[in-house]
Every structure is written in structure tokens, then in C-alpha cells.
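Box 3.1 A note on notation
Throughout this textbook, protein chains are presented in two layers. The first layer is the amino acid sequence; the second is a C-alpha cell string describing backbone geometry. Keep the layers aligned when reading.
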Amino acid sequence: MDPIVTAGSAAVVIFSITSHEAMHGFAANWLGDPTARERGRLTLNPLPHIDLFFTILMPAFLLLSGAGVIFGGAKPVPVNVSRLRHPRRDWALVGAAGPLTNLALAIGLSAFLSVLLHAGLADPGSRATGILSIGIFVNALLAVFNLVPIPPLDGSRVLQLFLSGAAFTAYLRLERFGLLLILALIMFFPPAQLFVSGAVRAVTLAVTLPFGVSHAVELGLRNLLGG
């Protein structure tokens, strides 16, 4: 891959992951829990959000193992649910804030790419199109993957709002095994990979089609990633 495209794509990906985590903190702070603010996590500076395992070791392991899917993330923003004004409802809102941020970024990047293409400042084979295509794809992936309702992913924070009694208690206990379940699904359950892949494609199409850049993004991703 072109070094400039690599550097630009890395910058967009880091910003996307950092924004995802920071918005969890901003949402929690707005809803009554200042824990993230107190610990210096209300920032788009990537350094406080880097996690050795999720940001570096896990993606490297999946890449080297040939799992076919690579994922990772930043250090989870600390949230004290008991400090939220309406704990269960607000916990769901905090959880949804991250994926919604990535969806908004994917839409924003699509709009920006549309402006560049229509102004003649970029073409489907240009570096700018490649970088923005990666950004759109990664944000679609982050939005979809984090909404999978397996603790501790954000989708579980939303789903818990609709559970009660024994189901709610059992679901909370599932978080202890959540990471193992996620890895097992990714590495040993192809239908899960196909579902996530299909959902990412659908979201990518949904955010690019209204701006008339779906073909350019598809071409950009094919040129950079193959397939």
C-alpha cells in the first residue's frame, strides 16, 4: 500500500476509535457520571485510550493466526453506572453513543468524499478516495461490531435495558466470558463472520449511496484491500 495512503488511513482509523471511546465518556459525563472526565479520558488524544491487549496484541494475534477477521479497540472508558442519574436507561445511552459516533463519522466522510469528487479534487483512484474509503469502511465496521449484543460490547448495554429479573442477572454474568465468546465466534463460527461482513457492507452502502459515492468507495476498497 502507498505509504501516504497507509499513514492517512492509520490516522483516520485512530481518530475513529478514539472518538468512539471519547463519546462514551462525554455521554456518561452529560448523564451524571464524571468518572471519565476525572480520569482524563474526555479527549481525542489517542494516547490515553490505547490498550496494550485490545489495540495492539489482539489485532496482531488475529492477523498472524489467519483468522480472516481482524478487530480490536481502545481502552474502555471508565463508567460508574451507579453515578448515572437513571442507571439502566443511561447505561444504554452511553453504550449507544460509541456506535452512533462511528455512524456519524461514516456519513461525514461520505459527504466529504462526495464534495471532493464533484469538485474534481479527487477521482475514484486517488489517494484521498482510498483514505476516505478506508475511513468509511472502518467506521461502519466499528458501528456494526460494537452493536453485537455480547458483553462487554456496546450492544449488550442497549439490550440490558429490555431485560429483567433472572434474565437480566444471567446476562450480566455472561460478561465474564464475553471476550472468549467473541473470539470463538470470530475464529470458529463462519456464519457470524458472514453476518458481520454482510451488515458492514449494508451500512457502508447505506451511508455512501445518498451521496453518490458508493461506487467510488467500493472501487477504493477493492484497490486497497482486494476482493
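The chain has a mean pLDDT of 88. The CA atoms of residues 61 and 103 lie 27 Å apart.
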